[in-house]
Amino acid sequence: LRTTFGAKPTTMAIETADVEMAVEETKAGDPAETPTETGEAADPEQQQMEVDEAVPDEIVEALESAQALIATPSTTESDEAAMAAFAAIVTGFPERSSDDAGSRAKEAAVYALARLYARRGRAAEMVGLLETASPFFAAIAKAKTAKIVRGVLDIAAERHDVGTTDADATTQQQKTASLDAQAELCRRVIAWCRAERRTFLRQRVESRLAVVDYDRARFDEALKTINPLLKELKQLDDKQVLVETHLTEAKIHAALRNVPKAKAALTAARTNGNAVYVGPSLQGQLDEMSGTLHCEESDYATAYSYFLEAFEAYDSLDDKPRAATCLKYMVLCQILDDDDKGNRGFFGDSSSSKGKSGAKGGTSSSTKKSRGGGKALAQIHAKHEVKYAGDDLDSMAAVAKAAKDRSLDAFEAATVKFAACLDKDLLVKHHLDQLYDHILERNLAKIIEPFARCEIAHIATLINLGPAKVEHKLAQMILDKKINATLAQGTGHLIVHDAAPNDPTYQASLDVIKNMEDVVESLFRRAEALDA
Predict the structure, then answer these.
(1) How does pLDDT run across 499-520, given as a tens digit for each residue?
(2) What does the buried/exposed string (b/e) look like for 163-190 if buried means 16 or more CB atoms within 10 Å of the residue's CB?
(3) Where are the alpha helices (DSSP H) in 29-99?
(4) Average pLDDT, whole number, for the chain?
């Protein structure tokens, strides 16, 4: 027992001595045995990072030098030097493409080079940038390559002056050159994606190309791009891209005046959007498109409510251009709604009011919401007058005043003065043409009201328009049964007839004949059944 119990103190003494020796070695600063005894082995990567921090990184220094050239006042010489420096970073340092610091530096160089090309209008260099960076893309992950490519496309989309550097150049020429460069860039990327078999990136770039073709007003080319793309996306069930692509399809069909197909595409976009998260910006675009289609159907009250929702979404995101556009559409809907009510009150109920009731048989909640559109619009103007003040709102204010005064001269003066704002928007341009026709019809009806027979030349003099235009409009009003008159072209007169009395006997007779026809057809069917 003594031997057994005595062995333990001996072992414990040995272990205590070992610990004391380890502590003494640690205090003495022995670097070789201390980490091993404590179980904390030296990290080679950490040691390498310490070495890298001690040694200057050539690619980082080159990037900082190139960025310093951009920081100087923008001149042609400084931009050229910066372009050369960034291009050297992208094409050089091949051994640094795979490590983190080198790939970050090259990515920053690609973005900076794209911004410089966009600033200086180097459309050809912008298109060839991705080909220049192909060796770098081959050395990094596909997801990072897709991110860089989308970033370059976004930079090209942000710059509307690609292709020209003259500050006094026409805005439309600048936009056209920018869109052409974006389209060519998208085509190059699509071809590269097909060669590298990068399907997902190709689909996103094709969706971007359809948007660019829509902005270029090349709707047939956009549809040729979208139709096969939608088939692929439906097979892959990529909901997010499907929502964006269907929205673009709806815009294209709306621009082509094909409202049924536009509504179908918008419904598909909303259906797919119910399965995924839709961001506020995309939701605002969907609401804006809904308002556009309701406006095309002359349902201005519902369109107003959709534009209001889109405006609030854009305003919360501080997206001033889109918010200003929606605010302009809201003013347009209010003008058109007032004009439609006045037009129906002047000529009686007409086909222009079909969109007001639809198949609902009553007033919808959105319609009720916008009945007080004038007050709501006044509140919005008071709240956002300074933030969104500009030619867009000034043009709509001038049009609203001309419509209220029923002045064709003021209307034409407003459209000429703000032609740059009004003509570029398809929705505004189309409905302003309708508004002009309504004002002209009401003015003509008011002029010919006291006459039984009047010269067309005299009417043209009173309304201050050409006789040919007045004669054409009068003929159109007669065919639309808005006035009961006859054009005597031989004498150049308009003969106005009294309104024919509305005798219900004729309609009742037609109803009796129709009912008798139904009865006879029913008897014939029964006789055939008995014979069989």
Answers:
(1) 777 778 888 999 999 999 999 9
(2) bbeeeeeeeeebbbbbbebbbbbbebbb
(3) 34-38, 44-54, 58-71, 76-91
(4) 78
